[in-house]
């Protein structure tokens, strides 16, 4: 390198022209700078990555399976052995990953595709899959009910599972002989169709406590009891009359209940008292004469009424607000006061009834001393005391 510099420095440079040469300037030899190229840190890293890529490409070309623990045949075998049971009727757990207007696609951790049609999403008739609570991310247990032969897509159902549970629930409720509530969704000449536990049940008109049409009961919830539960025949029959009889059996004469005015008639008002239809006769509205019921009551009004009587066989309940008036005519002039004092007035009414019954029993015993029973001052029937027996003998 030194000899090269010396050689170059010894070369004579051509003289400058007179026009370009400044006066007094001396000629100097030209300098030549020589050096080496140094790679940066980023350049080194790029070079290293390029080398690794070239080596990986070469391995993929010459030895693609090098370093892999199993072969493609092993992978296929593993998929087959870990696949889920896809037999018709079997239950399978899956996750909703996409919904459409016709249903939802379900991930069942299998190579097979699974689809839930909208008509199999629940027991009810729905227009959109979301109405059944089916949304992406939902994890649920489904039943395999069919397979599409064209693309081998498994057809799933939630309705089948829910239907089995609903029938089991109905059998349990029938065994317990309890009163349930059903919503009327339709009807025909023979009776009405009610929705019970998600199933459609039939209520014959002979088992409806009030004389009414299917249209009048549409969309209303009525108390019901099970009469027949036959899953094999898909037959579910219920009775409103039996449910009403059970409810009425719990209504004691003189008890106060909250009711809603359903309709007005010239002879009185029909009051709904928790699913039971009672009659508030015009003569039982107030001690004062009521010429026009509509001046006192209107459909939809909420009021307190007292049970006067009930006929379990015919499903009829007689009501009264007249007995709840603190003073005659309050139901007409100040109904709010009547409702505020209802429980107090009902208690007074029950005491009068108890006193009347006690007096009746006392009169009966007075004529039958040989019975060996007597009535205490509290109206309790008990054994005749020795003193009373001696006095009666005397």
From TrEMBL:
Pfam families: S1. One of its GO terms (cellular component) is chloroplast stroma. Gene3D superfamilies: Nucleic acid-binding proteins. It is found in: Plastid, Chloroplast. It comes from the Eukaryota. Keywords: Chloroplast, Plastid, Repeat, Ribonucleoprotein, Ribosomal protein, RNA-binding, Transit peptide. SUPFAM superfamilies: Nucleic acid-binding proteins (SSF50249). GO terms for biological process: translation. GO terms for molecular function: mRNA binding; structural constituent of ribosome. Signal peptide: none annotated. Residues 373-386 have a biased composition (Low complexity). Belongs to the bacterial ribosomal protein bS1 family. This is Small ribosomal subunit protein bS1c. Residues 89-159, 177-241, 254-322 form the S1 motif domain. It comes from Lolium multiflorum. Residues 373-394 are annotated as: Disordered. CDD domains: S1_RPS1_repeat_ec2_hs2, S1_RPS1_repeat_hs4.
């Amino acid at each position: 390198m030194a000899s090269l510099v010396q050689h170059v420095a010894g070369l004579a440079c051509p003289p400058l022209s007179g026009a370009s040469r400044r006066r007094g300037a001396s000629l100097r030899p030209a300098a030549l700078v020589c050096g080496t190229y140094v790679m940066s840190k980023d350049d080194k890293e790029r070079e290293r990555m390029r080398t690794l890529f070239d080596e990986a490409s070469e391995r993929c070309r010459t030895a693609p399976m090098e370093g892999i623990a199993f072969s493609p045949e092993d992978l296929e075998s593993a998929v087959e052995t870990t696949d889920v049971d896809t037999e018709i009727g079997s239950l399978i757990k899956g996750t909703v990953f996409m919904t459409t207007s016709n249903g939802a696609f379900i991930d069942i951790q299998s190579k097979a595709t699974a689809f839930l049609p909208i008509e199999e999403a629940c027991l009810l008739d729905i227009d959109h899959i979301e109405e059944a609570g089916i949304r992406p991310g939902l994890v649920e247990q489904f039943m395999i009910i069919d397979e599409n032969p064209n693309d081998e897509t498994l057809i799933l159902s939630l309705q089948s599972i829910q239907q089995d549970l609903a029938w089991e629930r109905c059998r349990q409720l029938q065994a317990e002989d309890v009163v349930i509530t059903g919503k009327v969704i339709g009807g025909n000449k023979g009776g009405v169709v009610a929705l019970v536990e998600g199933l459609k049940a039939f209520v014959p008109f002979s088992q409806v406590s009030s004389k009414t049409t299917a249209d009048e009961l549409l969309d209303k919830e009525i108390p019901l009891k099970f009469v027949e539960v036959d899953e094999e025949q898909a037959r579910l029959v219920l009775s409103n009359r039996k449910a009403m009889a059970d409810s009425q059996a719990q209504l004691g004469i003189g008890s106060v209940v909250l009711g809603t005015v359903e309709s007005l008639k010239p002879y009185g008002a029909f009051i709904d008292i928790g699913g039971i239809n009672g009659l508030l006769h015009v003569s039982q509205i107030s001690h004062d004469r009521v010429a026009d019921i509509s001046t006192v009551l209107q459909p939809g009004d909420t009021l307190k009424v007292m049970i006067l009587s009930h006929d379990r066989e015919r499903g009829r309940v007689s009501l009264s607000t007249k007995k709840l008036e603190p003073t005659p005519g309050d139901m007409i002039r100040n109904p709010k006061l009547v409702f505020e004092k209802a429980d107090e007035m009902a208690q007074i009414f029950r005491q009068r009834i108890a006193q009347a019954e006690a007096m009746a029993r006392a009169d009966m015993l007075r004529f039958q001393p040989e019975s060996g029973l007597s009535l205490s001052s509290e109206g309790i029937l008990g054994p005749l005391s020795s003193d009373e027996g001696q006095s009666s003998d005397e």
